Amino acid sequence: MKNFNSLVNKILMTESPIFSNSELSINLDNNQTNKEALDQCFKNGKKLENFKEWEVFEIQKEEFRYFCFVRNNIVEAYAEFVVDGQDVNSKRVLQKKSIDAKGLLRGAFLHYFPHLFSSITLDKVANVHGKEFFKKLMKEASDLGFKTTVFNEKTKNEALYRHENFEQYWSDKTIINNKAVGYYNLLFKIYYK
Questions:
Q1: How confident is the model at residue 97 (pLDDT cuts 50, 70, 90)?
Q2: Which of 2, 27, 93, 159 could, after both became Cys, cross-link 176 (CB 3.0–4.6 A)?
C-alpha cells in the first residue's frame, strides 16, 4: 500500500478552482507506473461492477477511496475521493493519454459515480488539463439535469453554477449570498440525488 500511496502523491491532477500552470507529473502511459498501479488494484482492490468496457477496482484506506478503471490489464484512469459520512470530496484524478480513454473519467463522474455517491465536491487545484476537465464536466452535469453549484468552503454557502461564469470562478469576482468569495475558498459541487 505504501507504493500505491506514493504513486497517488505524484499524481497529475487535482481539481478546482486554483490554477497551477504546470505539466502533469506522472503519466499512465509509463509502463512501470501503470504496472505498479495495476498490481495494487489486484492486491488491495475490490472488484466492483464494470463501467462500460472497463473493470473497476476500489481500494479503501481509512477515509480514502481510490477507483481504478482497467481494460486489458492496463489502468486507463484513476480517481481518488475522501469520504466523511455523506461528504464526498474528489481529490486526484488521472487518465491515460489515449483515444480509448478520452472522456473516460468525465463519463465516470456523470454515469458511474452517481450510483455510488449522492454528491461530489471537487477539489481546489487544477492544471491546464484539469481546468478543461472541470469546464466540460460541470456543463455536462448541468445538461444531464444534475444540480451543480459553486461552494464556499469557508462559509459552506452555495450558489447555482452558471456555465457562462466559468472563467470568473477562477478569479476573486465570484459572489455567493452577496459576499465576494476568494477563488481559494471556492469549490465546484455536483448533486446526483
A1: confident
A2: 159
> What's the angle, vertex CA 67, arms to CA 62 and CA 71, rounded to 5?
150
Q: What region does 21 belong to: left with phi over 0, alpha with psi -120 to 50, or beta?
A: beta
In 3D, which of 143, 72, 83, 155 has the Cα closest to residue 119?
Answer: 83
Q: Which of 38, 87, 41, 33 is nearest to 63 (CA)?
A: 87
Q: How many domains does the chain have?
A: 1
Considering only CA atoms, give the Rg of the chain: 16
**In which domain, by residue range, is 96 found?**
2-191
Cα separation of 150 and 188, whole Å? 5
Give the whole-angstrom CA distance, residue 134 versus residue 83. Answer: 20
Query: pLDDT, tens digit, for every residue of 38-84?
Result: 999 999 999 999 999 999 999 999 999 999 999 999 999 989 999 99
Q: Residue 28 is part of a domain; what is its CATH number?
A: 3.40.630
Model's pTM, two decimal places? Answer: 0.83
Residue 93 CA to residue 95 CA, distance in Å, equals 7
Biggest distance spanned by C-alpha atoms of the chain? 51
- Cβ atoms of 21 and 128 within 8 Å: the answer is yes
